[in-house]
């Protein structure tokens, strides 16, 4: 009876251990060894195409409204400084994305990087969050286009009847046919091919950038004529103080979200090692420069307190006798929204395709068209879903959920950089069909290792008999610490790796405690301060330990080498994790409740389907050193 209960306990423990290991199993970096079945995505994009995708996705119509609201309520004339600080904060994430994109240039973006560096469960969490972000983001952008088109045409009465918003009396729902039609048009363009859709994206983005350049040039000319009256506030460049400027930076930070869309097209880039980091860098630099110049001009034309919060740019030009400029500004807003809509719908089919390839979603989503070389089924599915949402639902209240997906992705990418540098994966999964080659190579290498040990032992006997050995023998007797130090050096990499893993985990815990305490305004001050102090102490101590440790040598051979490397590790990824975690914690309770419901749904989908159908279910993990030998043995057998 007791033995039977022990057996059951051991079996249960074994199942739990196996289940936990399956949650943290990691996949291999796609390389020349990985041969995908079926058709491939077309590698046609250049650095210029990627920049157009990134800029178009990042610069939405929000900037045409944001400058008025933030300047009036938070920053005053210091709006430009807020944009600069937010741009630098976004650059931290961009550096992390650039390294991982060049090392692991495959579809899936942050989901793909998390699966390689952290594990399957975290990758699923990020992928599921990004699905929500792209779907709601695309629908929200589409709902914002029709009012701007109506404004450009002089009012809703000038729109064709079938495009006008109207209410269904029985349901009390305001439907937007124009938004749904625009989503379907963009879906058709994306199905036509990546080069065709990127060409349209480039044209639309160019029109948007030209509209912003008009604002900068014409606004600068008017400001020079009027004497930059917005800055004639003696001693009031920071009317809301430093805290107001930093609060403005936190708000305008979200206007930089979108550069990560560049990594979604990694598998369609001609030269990913060079063009992906270049596309990310040019996107962020161009957006930051445009944002800063527009804010300099608009805040300089009129005093910040006189800006119209709804239409700050158009109203500013009208106040200076240029009413006709409103048409150019509105055209810029419309093209900005169209480019952003295309950028929102582009990465999602590729994300679904990557998740389906890994077995976490049905294989239906991984099909690639033989003619256009794009995932047409995934594109049509996501386009139809976004069109239905844009037609029936006012998703503006759900827009905060979009930020959660992006900030979670930014945080996980920065953590992946720390793992990659200090504790990269030591083993890689191989299909069970290669088991015979794995056993053969393992046996051969073990035999070689034993032969080397015997040879070294024999060499040691020979050395013992030589006169020169007496010097070493005397040194060993006189200095026994030499041999001890030699053994410690052999064990040092494993010890250093364990220390690094624990300190990365402690750093994340410290960040969580610190940011939670900083954003929990409902708690008593003493509790917030003490909790924050504990979190800060854990954070700083673990960061100091990481800074003192040597980075793992295996990082040099991880993934595709020769690409961009993130600088100032571990400090830059650490700052990125801290900033994004604080922004996550600052989101409203209502947003987190809605996101939690979505994540619980995702966990149920993963348990019921993804966990069971994962491509790593029957994978065999082997050391990295065995990999080339196994593939050579497999190739020679096939020949």
Automatic annotation (TrEMBL):
Major subcellular location class: membrane
Superkingdom, taxonomy of origin: Eukaryota
InterPro entries tied to this protein: AA/rel_permease1, CAT_C
GO molecular function: amino acid transmembrane transporter activity
Pfam families: AA_permease_2, AA_permease_C
Gene3D superfamilies assigned: Amino acid/polyamine transporter I (1.20.1740.10)
Transmembrane intervals: 45-67, 79-98, 110-131, 168-191, 203-223, 243-266, 278-304, 324-346, 374-392, 398-420, 500-520, 526-549, 561-585, 591-609
Localization in the cell: Membrane
Keywords: Membrane, Transmembrane, Transmembrane helix
Record membrane topology: Multi-pass membrane protein
Single GO cellular component term: membrane
Domain Cationic amino acid transporter C-terminal: 564-614
Family indicated by similarity: Belongs to the amino acid-polyamine-organocation (APC) superfamily. Cationic amino acid transporter (CAT) (TC 2.A.3.3) family.
Protein name as catalogued: Cationic amino acid transporter C-terminal domain-containing protein
Native species: Gossypium raimondii
